[in-house]
Write a structure and sequence with these properties.
InterPro entries: Acylphosphatase, Acylphosphatase-like_dom, Acylphosphatase-like_dom_sf, Acylphosphatase_CS. This protein is an alpha+beta fold. The chain has 2 helices and 5 strands. Helix 1 (18-29) runs antiparallel to helix 2 (51-61).
C-alpha cells in the first residue's frame, strides 16, 4: 500500500548534510518525494511510497545524519501525489 507523509524537522538540520542524507536514505529504501530547507531553519520533506519504507525514512528523520541535532519532527499524512523519484530542492 502506498502512503505519503509530509514532515517538518527542527533543530540543527541545515548545513549538516541533512537533505543529501535524506535523499540517500530515500534511494536505499525506495521512497519518492523531495526534501528542502525552509527559511525558518527547519527542513521539510515529502515522503511517498510503500508504507514500511516511508515510515522507516520518517524514523530516520528523527536523528538525521551524524552532524545534525534534531529537536523535533512534525509529521502529517497526505494523499500520495505519484512522485517517481526523490529530489533535493533548493
Amino acid at each position: 500500500m502506498s502512503i505519503a507523509l509530509q514532515a517538518w524537522v527542527s533543530g540543527r538540520v541545515q548545513g549538516v548534510w541533512f537533505r543529501q542524507g535524506t535523499a540517500e536514505q530515500a534511494a536505499t529504501l525506495g521512497v519518492h518525494g523531495w526534501v528542502r530547507n525552509l527559511p525558518d531553519g527547519r527542513v521539510e520533506a515529502w515522503l511517498e511510497g510503500e508504507e514500511l519504507a516511508v515510515r522507516g525514512l520518517a524514523r530516520w528523520l528523527e536523528q538525521g545524519p551524524p552532524k545534525a541535532a534534531v529537536t523535533g519532527v512534525q509529521v502529517q499524512e497526505q494523499a500520495p501525489q505519484g512522485y517517481t523519484d526523490f529530489e533535493v530542492r533548493r
